[in-house]
Amino acid sequence: MSAKIRTQEEIAARVKALESMLIEQGVMTTQAIDRMVEIYEHEVGPQLGAKVVAKAWSDPEFKARLVENASAACKELGISGLQGEDMVVVENTDTVHNIIVCTLCSCYPWPVLGLPPNWYKDPQYRAAITREPRRVLREAFGFTVPETVEVRVWDSSSEMRYWVLPQRPAGTEGWSQEQLVGLITRDSMIGVGTVGSVAS
Ligand code: FE
């Protein structure tokens, strides 16, 4: 994609033109395209990323492989596909909080998070999160990162799609991966939210 930011209408028109061309040339059928949209709207979503995170929390060797090469580690769980060829996982720690953005357009790791939410594509989020991440988290997402924790913002591109490995919450010792999955939100893997809290 060129550096020029396009409007939604321009993008929609281009997609429509490309779609017509692929159908005319017999590369794709309308059914195949409809099926693909359905897959990314209903079947591929943050529940897959949550599965990866829960495994990483439970299996230190898998976590090491995930941080080393996210796309390869996800493939071990049968998770791969469009827009997921070059994923990079950044790990939250006691001292570092990570956030992802695509300042140029809306690059996002589809195989693990599904399609990006509208606000992720919003020029305002894309500009403000890099300039004043703490303020955006606080004001737009109601989430305060302690001053003692460094905030890092990762700018994705078509070559490199980042996502966040949140910290495992205290009080979940002995939990199964299925239980852990229930705590992991989409926003915690974008870095604009936290994982669910553990009832004591
Ligand atoms: Fe992008």
What features would you describe in this structure?
This protein has 200 residues and is mainly alpha-helical. It has 11 helices and 4 strands; from the N terminus they run H-H-H-H-H-E-E-H-H-H-H-E-E-H-H. The chain has a two-stranded parallel ribbon with strand order 1-4. Helix 3 crosses helix 4, helix 4 packs across helix 5 and helix 8 packs across helix 9. The chain is globular. The protein starts with 7 loop residues before the first helix and ends in a 10-residue tail after the last helix. The mean pLDDT is 89. The structure holds fe (iii) ion. Fe (iii) ion (FE) binds next to loops.
SSE map:
Blueprint: H1 8-24, H2 30-43, H3 46-58, H4 60-68, H5 70-76, E1 87-91, E2 96-101, H6 110-113, H7 118-121, H8 123-131, H9 133-141, E3 150-155, E4 161-165, H10 177-181, H11 186-190
Fe (iii) ion (FE) binds next to loops.
